[in-house]
Design brief:
single chain; 466 residues; mainly alpha; Cytochrome Bc1 Complex, Chain D, domain 2; two-stranded antiparallel sheet; 2 domains
């Protein structure tokens, strides 16, 4: 009786076909659809790095060209308006209009007409990752330099850089305000908090659980691009990244990434890192908002989000499984005491104190509550309804590829709190809106509000007071 041939050869062929087009896989076959990244890399690390280094200039030039086509990226600070830490707030609409049309004319058109004529501003389209087909965490240069100076960790990627100019990003370092000690004001003392200085800054202010939670938030753990494996994107083997490498000082430095819960790659959304300030009043977490507590989110980040939602790769690269009863709890306890920045013009109900507000700010608040319909999703006092909403932006444009990103539909997105909003540029979930003026023009068009120029200015003034 003949023995049957083993199936291992068939298995190997299928595996190669599935992973052939991935970095480091030496095979001429076209990649078949798969939810998984390759685990076994066959190309030497030095060879892969050399190829990606050579491609980096072209990758970044392509993204720079897109940004220049979309936006006015100049440094134009608003007069006498700063973020909580003192950095000037940028002013003006930065999204460029199609030639020969004004914002008022565009606002009077129907979504169907704008879509048919291709007039939806490019700056309002989904924003791709600096290298969308590659993805992964990317940090602003100022953060990379400070972390390397303090701790010796190098968050530089050899294959790409961050794309938006520094003047359009949040304060660095941002202040830290605590719900437990509002009397102290900014407890960061103007420093970026790291494992090198957290104890001296917070000993005697936090309880032991919170202090341990902060230490864990500052401890580097392996991540998809920063780890010790041959498919990392750092030149040297890395300890990894920390929660506060993106949420610096419990706020944000606008570091970007891609959501981990969408496949294939071209449909994944870019992420603009949200602030952790006021996280205690929020009830939806994760890119699809399926997580209901900050403890859930903290655990999810370490187990899956750090690795593009792939637990197979997480095991390979060094997943950090948090112990729920202590570690995740301690980290959550610290995050839950991060407060919004002071807003001296607001009363205890989160509304403007009429004795302190300017006439323009009062007009903006009236519009916010009425004609502009902002309050429908952003009710006081924290200016969020803790819900998801689908703006259906796809009404205004035809599906198209943009630097590797398939712009088809955004789907439901979370209502982010507007308290302290001037501290958190850029705006919307993927950072496509560079200023508050851009944000108002975007929603004026999406909601068909037909606001006047004076009404838009009043809304900006009110938002800056929150």
């Amino acid at each position: 009786m003949k023995r049957k041939r083993p199936l291992i050869g068939v298995f190997l062929v299928c595996t190669v076909l599935i992973t052939a087009a991935a970095p480091g896989i030496a095979c001429g076959a076209e990649k078949a659809a798969s939810s998984y990244a390759p685990v076994v890399i066959t190309k030497p690390f030095s060879e892969s790095m050399a190829v990606m280094k050579d491609e980096k200039s072209d990758v970044m030039k392509r993204q720079e060209k897109l940004l220049d086509q979309r936006y006015d990226l100049s440094n134009r600070p608003a007069k006498d308006v700063t973020m909580s830490g003192g950095k000037p707030v940028q002013e003006g609409v930065r999204a460029k209009l199609p030639k020969g049309i004004t914002w008022q004319e565009l606002g009077n058109m129907s979504p169907e007409e704008i879509r048919q004529k291709g007039l939806f501003p490019q700056g309002f389209m989904p924003l791709p990752h600096p290298h969308h087909s590659e993805g992964g965490m990317v940090f602003p240069v100022f953060h990379i330099q400070e972390i390397k100076k303090q701790t010796g960790r190098d968050l530089t990627r050899f294959d790409l850089d961050f794309d938006l100019p520094d003047h359009l990003l949040p304060d660095f370092p941002p202040p830290i305000y605590l719900t437990t000690r509002p009397d102290l004001g900014d407890v960061s003392q103007g420093k970026v908090v790291t494992t090198d200085n957290f104890f001296e800054l917070f000993n005697g202010i936090l309880n032991p659980k919170q202090l341990e939670g902060l230490r864990l938030l500052l401890t580097p753990f392996p991540q998809q691009q920063f780890n010790a494996t041959e498919d990392r994107r750092s030149a040297k083997p890395s300890l990894g990244v920390t929660c506060f490498d993106c949420h610096v000082n419990g706020h944000t430095n606008a570091a970007t990434h891609l959501v981990g819960d969408i496949r294939p790659q071209k449909f994944r959304h870019r992420i603009d890192t949200p602030s952790l300030r006021g996280v205690n009043i929020q009830r939806l977490f994760g890119s699809q908002r399926g997580l209901k507590s900050v403890e859930d989110f903290t655990e999810f980040e370490q187990r899956a989000a750090y690795f593009d939602g792939d637990p197979v790769i997480a095991t390979k690269k060094g997943v950090n499984v948090l112990e729920r009863g202590s570690q995740a709890h301690f980290m959550g306890e610290f995050q839950n005491i991060l407060d919004f920045p002071p807003a001296p013009k607001l009363n205890i109900y989160g509304k403007l104190d009429k004795a302190k507000a300017t006439q323009l700010e009062k007009q903006g608040e009236a519009l916010f509550l009425g004609k502009a319909k902002c309050m429908v999703c952003h009710p006081a006092p924290y200016y969020t309804d803790n819900m998801m909403h689908n703006l259906k932006t796809e009404r205004f444009y035809k599906p198209q590829m943009i630097n590797g990103r398939m712009a088809s539909a955004d789907g439901p997105i979370k209502t982010f709190p507007l308290r302290g909003i001037k501290d958190s540029p850029p705006y919307l979930h993927d950072g496509r809106l560079l200023t508050l003026e851009d944000t108002i023009e975007f929603f004026n068009l999406i909601q068909k509000l037909k606001l006047t120029e004076d009404e838009k200015k009043a809304l900006v003034a009110f938002l800056r007071a929150l």
